[in-house]
Amino acid sequence: MAEDTVSLIYARAAEIAERSRNSFESGRFLSPAEQAVFFRAVAGLGSDHLMRCFFFGGCRGAERRAAVFFPEWADISDAPVVSPGTDLFSPEREDYFARVINDYGGDAITGIVALRVRGSGYRTLGHRDYMGSILAEGVDRSVVGDVVPDGDHSALIFVSREIAPFLTDNLDRVGSDKVTVTEETVAEDFVIEKKFETGTAVAASLRLDALIGAVANLGRSEAREAVESGRCAVNYLTELKADRQIKEGDVISLRGFGKIVTGSVTGTTRSGKLRVEYKKYI
Fold first, then answer.
1. For the purposes of burial, counting CB atoms within 10 Å of the CB of 27, is it exposed (0-12), middle (13-18) or buried (19 or more)?
2. How many other CB atoms sit within 10 Å of the CB of residue 213?
3. What residue spans in the chain does CATH classification 3.10.290.10 cover?
4. pLDDT digits (tens, 9 = 90+) for 52-77
5. What percent of the chain has pLDDT over 70?
């Protein structure tokens, strides 16, 4: 991520956190990498700001999420504890936020609404079709969250409230198909389900280069070079240290290969290598 982008995220984090002392405040949608930087920025502002900061994308399981700060007067003393070492995508904090936010006004607080986009059935529509057509309308990516196709001709799309009326009135085609767009209320228990394929890697150690070498079938020097050249990220931040120790639950991305979530060590081979479970996003 470019230094000027990181600096801008730090500045926005400080600005939104300061405004939130007396009122709910939220930002625009952030990619997972941007959320990781934002999270680090808020951690630098102090534990109070960090406890009042949640990431939410309109429902549980969203990947693109906005930062939402509770004001100082809101009682969130029973919220799961957060610290600089807490998992950025803590399901416990996301569950807590999804339950509590409705007591304060739901989408009016988060600034996020769900749009139902329905095609005519003329052709199959996918994620790229929806996203491409929305951006072609001149809409900035930061006001569009997750796009969730739930069939061949329909999708649920989370957007910032400010852009929802424009899309409702102006998005009439996706690809070559005619569509209708309406606001939709999402059930509180709705979850975006991630799709994975599972596997087991046999690695010499839990070093980053050893693990990606085993998963992506790279030689030792190839794996080390992939990390040191900046092609690898751990928990959405670029990692340049090949000897970084990986733990269960870490998200590892390798450019050109994809993204995995590391699981537990289930045993060792006769030669002493580790059997490590993982899930790869598909």
1. buried
2. 23
3. 196-281
4. 999 999 999 999 999 999 999 999 99
5. 99
